[in-house]
Design a protein that fits this description.
The chain is α+β, with helices and mostly antiparallel strands and about 350 residues long. The protein is built from 11 helices and 10 strands.
Length: about 350
C-alpha cells in the first residue's frame, strides 16, 4: 500500500529492528563467505536461496546427507566473556562431524543467527568463526538468516543454529551395516569439552563458587571462560584422507550422551564394543570436572566426550595403515578396543567402569 497521508512517524527501528544494521552485517560478512568457496558453490550472498552443483564437485551418483545442530549453553560463556569468534567453529563442527560419520563430504553450510538487538561487530565475529569452521571442513558458506527479534531475546543475547549438506557416492555410504565383530575401535583426540555438557559444567562452577573470569584450575595462564571456549575439533579432512585406504566400516561423533549413548548408534544390536580402560590419556579439564563435581566415572562417560571426539570402527588388518594416515594428518590416534558379538552383555563395556 502506498499513501501520501501523514502518519505518526513510527519506523521499524522504533520497534527495535534495524534494517540498516542488517545490511551492514551482510556487507561485513561477504568476504568471509567468499573465503569458503569451493567447486560447485559459486553464488554470492544476497539471494533468496543458496545454490550448489554436485556435478561440478565431481560426484557421479551421490546420496545427499543433511545435518542440523546448535551450540547449546556454551553460548552463555561467549555472552558472559564477550568472546564471540570461536562459537561459530563449534556450530560448523557439530554439523559437519555428523555428516562425515556417514561417509559424506560436507559441501555447503547455512547459519541462523537470532538476537534481541543486532550488534554488527558481535555478529561479524560469530560469522568469522563460521567461516573458519567451513574452511576447516572444506564446505562453502552459501547463505544464512539473521533474525532481530526484540521481545523474544534480551539486548545482547543471541542464539545460533546451523545446517549442512554433504554428499557421498552411493557405494560409499556408511549406514552401520558394515561394522562387524573383530573390527578395531580407534579414537581421535578431542580438544576439550567441545559443545556438550555445558549445563553440568556451569552447575559445577556455580557449586564451587567460580566464574568464567577466574583462573582455570585445569589450564595454566588462562581464565576458565577462555579454556572452555576452546572450539570443537573438526575431523572432516583427516577422515576423508583415511577413507582412501579402505577398511573404515563406521564412525561415531562423540557428542551429548558420551560413549554409552553414541557408540551403539553405529552398529547393530547383535554387536557390542569392548573398550580398554585407560587406553587414552585423560584431559585435565575432565579430571577437574569429575573431582570438583564429585561425578562418577560412568556419569562422566555418558555426559562428556572425556577426551575422544571421534571413534572409527576399522578392519583389523587395516588398523596400522589407517592410524598412519590419520597421524600424518596431525591426529592423535588411540586404540580403544574391539567389536565383539554381544550375547547377553551390554552394548558398551568399558573396562573398570561399573
Amino acid at each position: 500500500m502506498v499513501t501520501d497521508k501523514k502518519t505518526n512517524g513510527l519506523t521499524y527501528r522504533d520497534a527495535g529492528v534495524d534494517i540498516d544494521a542488517g545490511n551492514a552485517l551482510v556487507d561485513a560478512i561477504k568476504p568471509l563467505a567468499r573465503a569458503t568457496r569451493r567447486p560447485g558453490a559459486d553464488s554470492s550472498l544476497g539471494g533468496f536461496g543458496g545454490l550448489f552443483d554436485p556435478k561440478a564437485a565431481g560426484f557421479k551418483d551421490p546420496v545427499m546427507v543433511a545435518a542440523t545442530d546448535g551450540v547449546g549453553t556454551k553460548l552463555k560463556i561467549a555472552l558472559e566473556t564477550g568472546k564471540h569468534d570461536t562459537v561459530g567453529i563449534d556450530l560448523v563442527a557439530m554439523c559437519v562431524n555428523d555428516l562425515i560419520v556417514q561417509g559424506a563430504e560436507p559441501l555447503i553450510f547455512l547459519d541462523y543467527f537470532a538476537c534481541g538487538k543486532l550488534t554488527v561487530d558481535v555478529a561479524r565475529d560469530v560469522v568469522a568463526g563460521i567461516s573458519d569452521g567451513c574452511v576447516q571442513a572444506g564446505c562453502s558458506l552459501i547463505g544464512g538468516e539473521t533474525a532481530e527479534m526484540p521481545g523474544m531475546y534480551g539486548d545482547g543475547d543471541y542464539d545460533l543454529a546451523g545446517f549442512s549438506v554433504g554428499a557421498v557416492e552411493r557405494d560409499g555410504l556408511l549406514d552401520g551395516s558394515q561394522v562387524k565383530a573383530g573390527d578395531v575401535i580407534l579414537g581421535l583426540a578431542s580438544s576439550g569439552v567441545h559443545s556438550n555438557g555445558f549445563s553440568l559444567v556451569r552447575k559445577i562452577l556455580e557449586t564451587n563458587g567460580l566464574t568464567f573470569a577466574d583462573p582455570a584450575p585445569f589450564a595454566e595462564g588462562i581464565t576458565i571462560g577462555e579454556a572452555l571456549l576452546e572450539p570443537t575439533r573438526i575431523y572432516v579432512k583427516q577422515v576423508l584422507a583415511a577413507f582412501k585406504t579402505g577398511g573404515i566400516h563406521g564412525l561415531c561423533h562423540i557428542t551429548g550422551g558420551g560413549f554409552y549413548e553414541n557408540l551403539p548408534r553405529v552398529y547393530g544390536e547383535d554387536l557390542a564394543c569392548r573398550i580398554k580402560g585407560n587406553s587414552w590419556p585423560a584431559l585435565p579439564v575432565f579430571e577437574w570436572l569429575a573431582k570438583a563435581g564429585g561425578i562418577a566415572t560412568r556419569e562422566m562417560l555418558r555426559t562428556f566426550n572425556c577426551g575422544i571426539g571421534m571413534a572409527l570402527f576399522v578392519e583389523a588388518d587395516k588398523t596400522d595403515e589407517i592410524t598412519a594416515v590419520l597421524e600424518e594428518q596431525g591426529e592423535s590416534v588411540y586404540r580403544l578396543g574391539v567389536m565383539v558379538e554381544r550375547g547377553d552383555g551390554p552394548s558398551v563395556e568399558i573396562e573398570g567402569v561399573e
